[in-house]
Amino acid sequence: MCTLNSLFKYLPMKKNTFIISFLSLFIFDIYSITIINDRKDASISSVVYDSKTNNPIDFADVIINDTLNNIINSTQIFNGNFTIDKLNKGFYYVTVKLLGYEDFKSNLIELKESENKVLPNIFLNQEETSLQEVSVTADKSKVVYKIDRKTINADASLVASGGTAVDVLTSSPSFRIDADGEISFRGSAGFLVYIDGKQSPLSGTQALQQISAANIEDIEIITTPSAKYKSDGDVGIINIKTKQNKSKGFSGIINVAATTLGGWNTDVLFNYQKKNSRFFWGFDGSEVKSKSDFYQIKNTIIDNYNTTSIADGTRHSNKVSYIGNLGWEYNYNPHHLLIELQAGDAKNKRGGDMSYYEHRTFNDEILNDNVYDSHDRYCNEKKLGQLYTEYTYKINDRGDKFSINGRLRHDWYALEYTESNLFEESGKRFEGTRGYEDEYHWDFDGNMIYELYFDKNNFLESGYQFTSYSEIGDYNIKYWDRQEVDFIWQDDLRAPFYYRRQIHSLYSMYNGKYGNFEVNGGLRGDYTLDRLYISVPGANRNIKRFNIFPSLHLGYNLSSNHILSFGYSYRTNRPGIWQLEPYITYEDYYTKKIGNPDIRPEYIHSFELGYRWVSEKGNTFNLTAYYRDRKDVTDRIRIAYEPGVTLDSLINAGNDSSLGLEASAKTKPLNCWDITFNADLYHYKFKSNYVGCSNASNTSYAVSMINNFKLTKTAKMQFDANLVGPSILTQGKEKAYCYFDLAFKKQLLNNKLSLSLVAHDIFKTARYYNTRSNSSLNFITKIKPKYPNFALSVTYLFNLSGAKEQNKAVSSGASFEGKDF
Asked: Looking only at Cα atoms, what is the longest distance across the chain?
């Protein structure tokens, strides 16, 4: 038994000293209780609007001063709202500041004990010098965090000439460009792309590359989407919020860019605002090109045939899109109506031009020892149209509202074409294929949503969603016949097909705020019907599934500068029709692919725990721990198919997990220089359920440093340094690499005209090195991007009273062509 006297024997002080210290602590506690009882539980809140457009204002600073002009507390406005709590009773002034607007200062406000005072709406007046003449160069926070998402501001770092949404994203932790120029987040390309809350008519990286960064206001990254969103996408949703000037009259943006690799993009956006109506129309056109030196050694062993081939040449890609849009938006309280039409053409092309050396033996007897000239091409073209409508009715002043929206997309022409060509050194054709998949698609989704508000901080949202995708197509292929000296149709391989997926969903969400605590939780039920009818024997499928998808988000403000958050989401990756098709297609003559009608969906549990801190001087620090557990991982497994030829087949390879830590910090050593550090450290573990794969694990990382320099009032420079760590595949490994980018920007004509020049990978350090092996094959792939890679862009803004200076990240990542070969 421990007594006070026995405790004294172990204390490094005398008994009297201990008693005095104990009494001092007791007195201090009494004093602390007295201070605590001087309760700081009053608050001040309001909503801030632009006085001309009546739109809510973001990112303004709100400062609370006492009568002696001491700063008592401060915060930043998001979505027009602000609340400052933990205030004593007393007398205060409220000041709202935002560059480009006149400061607002309230009259003297009396705040009583425990009072939650709601001020009348605040309207900020734009500075007269900026109206209709000069684009405002207000600096916004690079990343804004909310309870279920983070928002990257496209204006926050120096411009990437010819930049797209990809350029903006790759300045954020955990985003990286893979060897084929495809963007991934936390090691996965499984994300959905939305534009202004509407699903993009394109998908994945091509959807991001189609949108010029000059037209982007913000990009929302929803890594653990709530139950209100579609359950597809294992790493969540990327929502691109475009610039939508709503000032009266006519306004617009024109942007043109080109690269030394032959790529270009141009986009125009026009708005006309009159009373309650806004008319908008525009055009986005782009041709994103990438080219790399390619070298590969491949060895296959099958049925005693031992084949070694060496491929040396170039691989290239060319993603082209022309998308036009027009729409009408109508606001007349309590009604809101939006109608938007998009139409255009999109092509995803790639290919290679190689010298192939092949050495083949059978039981040590040499069968072939020749050099060939190889040319392969792939093109996936779609002519599409999409109609989106949205109607919202505000039921009462409390905030209750009902909304309905629908999206209909039709691809009236879609052709996926592949060709492989193999010539002898003399120029005589040796082998060749031509593959055609002709198809057309219908895609529809609709939502009915009701929001019931208990008060301004607590509401219930419930809804029904319906999704339908239909595709009818026909696959044909012809082979080169050396005797006929012509391509011959392979009628036995013809595969007409019909595919339809329908998903019926119900969800309910609760959103609430209690003082410093926020909660967002919900439940979603999906009933999925998949039907596949195809002429391949035994490949017809009729699958029905029902799944429950819960979500939970919590947030807690420790103080005005320290915030904790937690997120959980259960997601899925359902296989698309292109993954189910059970017939062989060609990438080149030596590389074949086949789908799998029995592939199962992936199911993913995602967790996040975040901490963020913002200093009064603008320095920031963000830390996010994440864990993702994925069941039935879908991957393409490469096997030896024929002598010298490999087949990539789609399987559920096993289960994996990722445990990682993201960090981002911003500091300003000098007034003309600020630095942003981004880092991602994660441990990946894969457990195989397939005989052709093996268990694997590794720890990888990605680090970047973004330096912004203000050279003059109208000139800036940015230098980026990036290091991408090694990673493992289900059958191999990829080595680490680094690259460095440099950009300059000059603004003219009162900031309405911007000229930008970017040099990518200026030290030529980007290298891709991959190894893959199993019992029947081994190969090594080396890829180096082509140089030089410079980009020049010109942006002009006119009559945009509320537009911000367009600053994007320099780097779109090192792009390598040919990883999958």
From this structure: 110
pLDDT at position 483 is: 92
- For 232-265, b/e burial (b = at least 16 CB within 10 A) is bbbbbbbbbbbbbbbbeeebbbbbbbbbebebbb
Residue pLDDT, tens place only, 644-702: 788 888 899 899 999 999 998 888 888 888 888 889 998 999 998 887 678 888 888 88
Residue type, 19: I
- The per-residue DSSP string of 157-196 comes to S---TT-BHHHHHTTSTTEEE-TTS-EEETTB---EEEET
Determine the distance from the C-alpha atom of residue 98 to the mean position of all C-alpha atoms in its chain, rounded to a whole number. 28
Task: Record the tokens describing residue 624, joined without a space.
Answer: 């996010």
* Phi and psi, residue 549, nearest 5°: -125, 100
CB environment 604-634: b (16+ within 10 A), e (fewer)? bbbbbbbebebeeeeebbbebebbbebbbbb
Q: How sure is the predictor about 173, in pLDDT bands with cuts at 50, 70 and 90? A: low
Count CB neighbours of 20 within 10 A: 12
- What is the DSSP track for 484-536? TTEEEE-GGG-EEEEEEEEEEEEEEEEEEEETTEEEEEEEEEEEEEEEEEESS
Please report the sign of the dihedral spanned by the C-alpha atoms of residue 360, residue 362, residue 363, residue 366.
negative
Record the tokens describing residue 323, joined without a space: 């998308």
DSSP 436-490: EEEEEEEEEEEEEEEEEEEETTEEEEEEEEEEEEEEEEEEEEEEEETTTTEEEE-
Cα–Cα distance for residue pair 612/807, rounded to 1 Å: 24
Q: How many CB atoms lie within 10 A of CB 307?
A: 23
Q: Which two tokens stand for residue 507?
A: 């969800």
Which pLDDT belongs to residue 438?
Answer: 92
Structure tokens at 705: 């440093």
Do 257 and 267 contact (CB within 8 A), yes or no? no
pLDDT confidence bin for 37, thresholds 50/70/90:
very low
pLDDT (0 to 100) of residue 135: 31
Q: What is the pLDDT of residue 40?
A: 64
Cis peptide before 788 (omega within 30 of 0): yes
| Contact yes or no for 821/587 (Cβ under 8 A) | yes
Is residue 626 within 8 Å of 658, Cβ to Cβ? yes
Q: How many CA atoms lie within 13 A of 432 on its CB side?
A: 21
Q: What is the pTM of this model?
A: 0.74
